[in-house]
Amino acid sequence: MKNSLKSNLLLAMTVAGVFQFSCQRQSASMATSAGAATQTTATSGYGQGITSVDQMYENLEFNMPRVKETKFPEYSVSITKYGAVGDGITKNTKAFEQAINDVAAKGGGTVVIPRGLWMTGPIVLQSNINLHAEAGSMVIFSRDFNDYPLVETSFEGLNTYRTQSPISGRNLTNIAITGTGTFDGNGDAWRPVKKSKMTGAQWKELNKTGVLNAKGDMWYPSENALKGDTQGSNFNVPDLKTRAEFEAIKDYLRPVMLSLVNCKTVLLDGPTFQNSPAWNLHPLMCQDIIIRNLNVRNPWYSQNGDGLDLESCKNALVYNNTFDVGDDAICFKSGKDKDGRERGIPTENVVVKNNVVYHGHGGFVVGSEMSSGVRNIHVSNCTFMGTDIGLRFKSTRGRGGVVENIWISNIDMINIPTQAISFNLFYGGNSPVLEEDQRASDETRVEKLVPVTEETPSFKNIWMRNITVSGAAEAVALQGLPEMNLQNVNIENSFLKATRGISAVDATGITLKNVKVITEKGPALTIYNSKNVKVEGLTYNETKDPVVKVLGSLTQNVQLNGKDFTNAAAQISKGKDLGKTAVTVQ
N or C of the chain: less Cβ packing under 10 Å? Predict the structure, then answer.
């Protein structure tokens, strides 16, 4: 009896916590008619900004195949038919499973989650299922780690084992999650927490459960989880070989909230996804995906608390979403190092429009796991408020892969604590905002030239226009590799207000046209070991520093427009090691 009362008390506390964390949307109708008498098209009924799929194909710079859309039979079943109890304490895993089996056996349709608090273990989707969370519904995933067995999967671009995701689907066709309810991953039960991220009172309360590392500055939910973090790992993927070795540290292997692997014709429309154990939404090797009208939330301190990681996916639309997360918000990936190159599936043909990011390490991000490549991407009409970096491209030696043909326009950013736009091919894994347990030396440049191989990453052919930055530590940082320069980056018709200006290092084919740079210190533009740079229509505020600073013995063919300067000789600073013909003022 005593143990039962204690268990119920813990469950009640869990419900109270996640309910406080939740932020519900207004109610919306269920799936609406798609024209045919026996078919419905899944929708949340919630719309903003982009009001039709057709608008997503307007003004695209590449040939984008039209994404196939989901359709479902009118048959529907509520989880309450199979005994689900919405008290936030009763575990409803079997009711979800039986309702999904019922609808699948009838050829497909809708599984309805009514208003209420629905505790459950993992939900496994099937083909032709629309999981519809009605307004006021909240699905709370169990804190019992025994509910989540190990599964073979890919995480952070590597083939590995992880615990089963709260929501998952593999090799499915025609699936959807719709409505305006909430899915809460109970991530606080799983995630390690750094002492530096909490107040004294919060840290004291947290330490009533779990264990600390030897230094006493990192909390883990169990000894098992702590053991996983001391085995040696590739970031969060332990370097272990056998399933038994992974079982011994299972609590450490936090799952992504939603894992969809090799699925076709996918719709996510309307719900809130929040408080994930690791990444929030992870479509992997999927095709024909629509992600819209979502509210994606994680605590700001959440380890690996990404919003959306679209990995090795083809033909996708991402629009009208709001992100407020603890790591990268909208992130495109395609596998890591050898595992990613052997997969050989790029992320391609994706349109991203009308999204808002409130917090995250990056607003829109490519990498760093991009070993199969990323290409043919359109991003427009997005707002980033306080993200560590706004537009973020990252990789490192050993990745391989080609990122190319990226078009970005009409992006507004404010209060960016580091770079508004960042290309970093020396990415070392840490957040650019250094924390107490991180060192600046981890991001140190390596000047040594190494051979170009299949392990050399390449970023090229990227266009950015109508970018507005109102406050950042650095406007733009373009950093390639000495052996593989960042190639053909174009910035046009943009206003950049930051403490420091634009820098280009190991870059080739950089074009700046009609760009205004307002800085507090340093040059508006610094160029180092870069080639074929063309600048026209550069405007700036007057400071004591030179407007343009050109350095590096490898710098060649920098073309500046004389009309941009009142006194070019004084405003353009040239390094002593610069070739005599490296810079021309026309």
Answer: N
Whether the CB-CB separation of 298 and 273 falls below 8 Å is answered with no
Structural domain spans, the chain: 192-253
Longest dimension (CA), the chain: 87
CA dihedral 513, 62, 389, 339 (to 10 degrees): -130
Q: Is the distance from CB of 586 to CB of 561 less than 8 angstroms?
A: yes
Higher pLDDT, 443 or 508: 508
Write the DSSP assignment of 144-166 as a string of letters: -GGGS-EEEEEETTEEEEEEPPS
**Measured torsion, CA atoms of residues 110, 112, 118, 123, in degrees rounded to the nearest 10:** 0
H helices of 311-389, in order, are 337-343
Q: What percentage of the chain exceeds 70 in pLDDT?
A: 87
Residue with tokens 């280009």: 504
Dihedral sign, Cα of residue 553, residue 554, residue 559, residue 560: negative
Distances (CA, A) of 500 to 76, 349, 432, 523: 57, 34, 16, 7
Give the alpha-carbon dihedral of 46, 48, 53, 55, to 10 degrees. Answer: 170
Residue 533 sits at the vertex; the CA angle it makes with 499 and 577, to the nearest 5 degrees, is 85
**363 half-sphere exposure, CB direction, 13 A CA radius:** 33
- C-alpha–C-alpha distance, residues 122 and 258, integer Å: 10
Q: Give the whole-angstrom CA distance, residue 411 versus residue 406.
A: 14
Dig out the tokens for 298 from the structure. Answer: 């994680």
**Dihedral sign for Cα atoms in the order 40, 42, 45, 48:** negative
DSSP class of residue 177? E
Query: Closest Cα partner for 40 from 110, 89, 119?
Result: 110
d(CA 421, CA 331): 15
- Tally the C-alpha atoms within 13 A of residue 84's C-alpha that lie toward its C-beta: 31
Place of tokens 């307007």: 58
Structure tokens at 311: 């990995």
CB atoms within 10 A of CB 147: 16
Distance CA 312, CA 370 (A): 9
Q: What are phi and psi of 439, to 5 degrees?
A: -125, 140
Phi, psi of 342 (to 5 degrees): -70, -30
Tell me the pLDDT tens digit for each residue of 454-473: 999 999 999 999 999 999 99
Q: What gap in Å lies between CA 258 and CA 360, rounded to an integer?
A: 19
Taken as a whole, the chain contains a residue count of 586
Cβ atoms within 10 A of the Cβ of 569, count?
Answer: 8
Burial per residue of 320-341, b for 16 or more beta-carbon CB atoms within 10 angstroms, e otherwise: bbbbbbbbbbbbbbbbbbbbbb
